């Protein structure tokens, strides 16, 4: 195994997250210390709970060479503090420091069901951790049907990490106490990667900064400079929110929305009709008349998958083709995406995936570039439609369905394509059930004016009616270096707009995790039964001495191979193997739909002992075996 330099939190202003560089978007240079080994981690006691779940240094420095700022002030949010240190709760958001402690603790305390891996490193050189959860006494993880769940691919979409943690905590703490959990871990494997993008997750929870996906420097505004205009926390409240400048009646673009009883929301009324001008909090660092349009990073890890990947607009030599923003230089150019791909391709026992985001909310899946009726096998589409409905029954999400049709048109308009999207890779190239679910509703609880849309005044009104004072940041006066007197406030960008407040995260995380449990319970599962042996009379032309008949059933809801998986041959056919005797002729090959069975006849030649072992073998349906006597 390769030993790689570990990424670490930066102390003071020294960049310990990796150096990065200009030129092609290759991986960042690794930091010097400490070291870690990629692969299975030996179970070790992590020691006492960390004294602080946020860095104790005043600043941290983000990896990568950029024209803008890379060093940011550490913010100690109340929303990330555990109720009792060292006791799991889902009334706060878990930082990277706390998550790593829990993962190591679980691996140390439950080595019978938990393995901890470092699957690779992030752009900055931080280790990316992943759990394997299964009962090891009933077989290897790779010999069982498996599901893979991933959180926090996108920097600020931290609710997905919480749902991943909730599921891991549920399985680990209920094992040995809950028959359903024990049965699931006896038969199946669950791979959980709580934080696929530790760089962005840390930046979001340790500083006022946020971004779309990865911290790799990128020229968002096309001016030839990378990350030169990030937001600034001018009033020091730990958030990059909104700024409003009063310019007089009829001179601005916005007014205070009279429909909001709390006076928090602003309403755009058009140039020359309002009282205020609106900006995002910060300064115009590059002097182009726009505020904070080129902050940290800008690529999108969920547009970096190989299936139907398209170049970004600036790389399209024709200047007229369909392009994809945030796609990266080439498919799997980003280490975080690449580590998902390599794990999946080396663990093809995985038949169900959910790589989660925020905040539609929606059970989101492919296709991302075509109408499902036209480009999916009917049986596969019907299975997905079943899971759409099942998901909504657990979560109550307003939307469920495909990216191309349901996601793109949920607010009206025509279908639109996303390229290089994970769910498309998951179905068309990996041949699995793959969701990219979106947790949280952005505070969109009641559509008071029944227009089918949600506005800030409706979010603010709901909060007021429900006694919530943490949804919006109060408008406070500040002095801007170029604008003069401004007010800073608006909807809470971290803990209401993009993610719920901590007191709500547990419910949303649990509901999403219950759907993921349902996916896991639905995995294909081969079961070998009705084993019979008949001794053949006389001398057979093929030399067979016995005939064996067995029935192989798929007790799961998901086929051992989707129709798409069969077409692309991502998994080998199911079969039956015999040891202890010689099989005459070729081994049978078949695939089993959910709930289906296959009766198999094998002609055997007795070669020694009286007992043979019969094994049903399926890449995604696992293994099952039985013994039989040759009379």
From TrEMBL:
Pfam family name, one: Peptidase_M14
Residue segments, region Disordered: 211-238
Keyword terms, alphabetized: Hydrolase, Metalloprotease, Protease, Zinc
Entry cofactors: Zn(2+)
Signal peptide bounds: none
Compositional bias per record (Basic and acidic residues), positions renumbered to this chain: 218-228
The keyword tRNA-binding appears for this protein: no
Peptidase M14 domain sequence ranges: 92-523
InterPro entries on file: Peptidase_M14
Annotated family: Belongs to the peptidase M14 family.
Protein name (record): M14 family metallopeptidase
The organism of origin for this protein: Micromonospora globbae
